[in-house]
Specification:
The chain has 13 helices and seven strands. By secondary structure, it is of the alpha/beta class. The chain folds into two domains: 5-112; 132-338, P-loop containing nucleotide triphosphate hydrolases (Rossmann fold). It has a five-stranded parallel β-sheet with strand order 4-5-6-3-7, sandwiched between helices. Helix 1 crosses helix 5, helix 2 (38-60) runs antiparallel to helix 3 (65-90) and helix 6 (161-177) packs parallel to helix 7. The longest helix has 32 residues, at 5-36. The mean pLDDT is 89. The structure holds zinc ion. Zinc ion (ZN) is lined by residues 103, 105-106, 117, 119-120.
Length: 340
């Protein structure tokens, strides 16, 4: 999965903060060790003087350079041995040599050789996830999706909101657990996860369940992008009219949205409508369906609303290709305020 420059920059900034923190921590620990064992400080000073002398000798290139270098090397080895002995006796060896990097594999550089380190890939995925949805409810998990807000009484239309929502919640839990991009492992073909359409009024838990799925799928190491339709389309529209030079590895937001493992498009129908928006939404839905990439879309709009607002073609792709869920009940956000 490639990422736009902005996302690279954000992830790189985190790595840079980690390196800075590691440096500071190392200095603090050093000072603590020096106050406990002043001899260590003396040895370190002498070692750095030897380092300076070595550089000067090489630069000056005297006749007996080899001999001088050998002598300095022996002095250095002797001091190092002395230091290790002191540290071992005090039980401080490990602390002294710990460079305090959050990731020992890449020392917080993000790269092991020329390959991106796992820690960097994780940071990139995290940055991509929240790059498009500046504001979203935190802490949306399955465990705190309460069914208590949904009425347990069967309505005249025969629907029992609590039962229905329990079914939807269970489906979502299974969906997240079995999330897959499709595979041919061990000769067995596993199809990619389906795309889902969450329908129903505002405040019935559509965003909560989408984010709960996102959280689990991210934990499995997949690249998830979440965005409200409003933010995401504004970002894509802005990008379209911006000419920017892109590095080889970098991608546009549009390709991120088209390529990510799971796209969550929240609140379809709240975005500002234009020709660009209609064709971009169709492009996203159609491309991802054709490539078998799962998408979760939530909307307050009905089938008729969608046909009317966008196009029949878009509505038929959406209703033909997505599994639909009708969320029921009364606005849980208002209820949870009243119920505290
Ligand atoms: Zn790393």
């Amino acid at each position: 999965m490639g990422f736009p420059k902005e996302i690279y920059d954000r992830a790189s900034a985190v790595l840079s903060e980690r390196r800075q923190y590691a440096k500071e921590q190392t200095l603090v620990r050093r000072q603590q060790i020096y106050s406990l064992l002043p001899q260590i400080e003396q040895i370190d000073k002498q070692l750095s003087q030897i380092g300076m002398k070595t550089i000067q000798a090489v630069a000056g290139a005297p006749d007996e350079l080899d001999k001088i270098l050998e002598r300095l090397k022996q002095q250095s080895l002797g001091l190092q041995k002395q230091r290790e002995d002191l540290l071992t006796a005090a039980g401080l060896m490990e602390i002294y040599h710990d460079d305090n990097h959050a990731c020992k594999k890449c020392k917080d550089t993000g790269y092991v050789g020329t390959k991106k380190c796992e820690c960097f890939q994780k940071l990139l995925r995290e940055a991509a996830f929240d790059s498009l949805g500046a504001v979203y409810p935190q802490n949306c998990r399955f465990s705190n999706f309460s069914l208590d807000y949904y009425s347990a009484q069967t309505a005249p239309n025969g629907i029992n909101p609590r039962e229905k929502m329990a079914q939807i919640k269970n489906f979502c839990i299974e969906y997240a657990r079995n999330f897959s991009m499709g595979s041919h492992a061990l000769g067995k073909h596993q199809p990619p996860s389906e795309s889902l359409l969450f329908m129903g009024n505002t405040g019935l838990g559509k965003t909560h369940l989408s984010l709960a799925i996102a959280g689990e799928v991210i934990n499995k190491g997949y690249g998830v992008v979440y965005g409200s339709a409003q933010n995401l389309l504004a970002k894509l529209e802005k990008e379209k009219f911006q000419f920017s030079y892109q590095q080889e590895e970098e991608q546009s937001y549009l390709s991120l949205v088209l390529d990510c493992d799971l796209l969550i498009l929240d609140d379809l129908g709240t975005e500002f409508l234009s020709q660009f928006v209609t064709s971009t939404i169709y492009n996203i839905i159609n491309t991802r369906l054709l490539e078998g990439k799962p998408t979760i879309i939530s909307t307050n709009l009905s089938f008729q609303d969608i046909s009317k607002r966008y196009t029949d073609r878009l509505a038929s792709r959406l209703f033909g290709g997505y599994i639909q869920f009708e969320f029921v009940g009364r606005d849980i956000r208002i209820q949870s305020k009243i119920m505290g």
